[in-house]
Predict the structure.
Amino acid sequence: MTPGITQLSATELAKWMNSAQSEAPLLLDVREPWEFEVAHIAGSLHLPMGSIPSALEQIPTQRPVVCVCHHGIRSQQVALFLKSRGFNPLYNLSGGIDAWSREVDPTCPTY
């Protein structure tokens, strides 16, 4: 576990998103365009991993950021990069969109 980057399970993220008592996180989906087309969480900001360094101004700094990918590996790398650029608080969706599809939203396709 990396200090400053909290790992969230899909069910923890769903509870957070449905809570009216806390600030809604920004979901930053860092997968490739074709992956995003197959499955994504509604309301996600889609910025493929390779575009992140040149797109930092598109990521709000005033909200918690949850990084999302297919299984949680690329999103963890992006979270580490964002941490090095001063973003905080940062979260990683452990298990990625795959876990989301299996544990929270079975209508979200797996691939």
About this structure: Residues 46 and 90 are 16 Å apart (CA to CA). The first strand starts at residue 5 and ends at 8. The chain has a mean pLDDT of 94. The helical segments are 10-18, 33-38, 73-84, 96-103.
